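Researcher: I've been going back and forth with a colleague about how Methylenetetrahydrofolate reductase might be arranged in three dimensions. Neither of us has a model we trust, so I'd like an independent prediction. The organism is Helicobacter canadensis MIT 98-5491, in case that matters for your notes. Sequence below.
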Amino acid sequence: MNKIETFIETLRSHKKCFTYEFSSPASFSLEALFETIKKENLPAKIDAFVCTDSPLAKLKHNAILASLKLQNTFEIPSITTMSMRDRNTLALQSELIGMNSLDLRLILALTGDPIRHGNQPQAKGIFEGNSNVLLKTICQLNTAKDINNNPIQGDFKPFYPFSVLNSYSNKKQNLYKKMQEKIQNGALAIFTQPIYDLEIAEELLQWSNQINQECNTHCVLIFGFFPITSYKTALFLHNKLPGVFVPQGYLESMEKASQKGMEFEIGLQKSQELFNHLCKIHNKIHLMSANKADIIGKILNG
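Model: Here is an independent structure prediction for Methylenetetrahydrofolate reductase. You can compare it with whatever you and your colleague have in mind.
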């Protein structure tokens, strides 16, 4: 069985499944970050990478090429993030066909952050549609036909489409509807934004189980996890990152830790406890750390 299909089997099983976010820098070289990954022996502890695609509309190393480098270097699957912001459906299909031939077949579909958030003001957003258009396009390509129903020649292996979801909203019904739409449009797994409230984790899992039952699907929910090791980070996540909620008690603990000069130690301890609790609820976790592989290594070593 191909390593990609093995990953999908693990994801859909009752086994634990961890993915790690690799955030491509604005650099011609990725080797320095690769060395930190090797140092922490992360490839032996995770099941797949997730390679970001210029988040916040900031210039970064190309996600497709970074995914290929990750997959070839560490010999585990890499999930490639693709954004509707930068491509129309012609470009999307063309890239996906080429990726299939390179065995890059795990795709995380995003709408993409607006250009105004980034550092390339001259650029123009495409936004031919949102992430659901990309999910539908991938499902159509899985029939070996383009979105106009024209056949595509050559050997073909299936794509596996994934999506993302905020972990919090003041309007729960809207969040539920978005999860439902993503599942109905073919997402095989949904990655959430970082979760810091266990009640929210339980509720999201309940929603996904309910929607899967209604739609006769098997979409897997993957909890987002981002360790907080500073009060500044806690405030940023809570106030600036849409769809993320950090409980007041968590914020107060990190503020007190900051005043005592013990942010990292207490933050790491609280993050470890959160990670352990999330794993007990649902052992499918997406690990994020802004490329601080050493912190993720500490968490996984427990």
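Researcher: What would you highlight for our discussion?
Model: I'd start with this: The chain is about 45% helix and 15% strand. After that, consider the following. Residues 37 and 63 are 17 Å apart (CA to CA).
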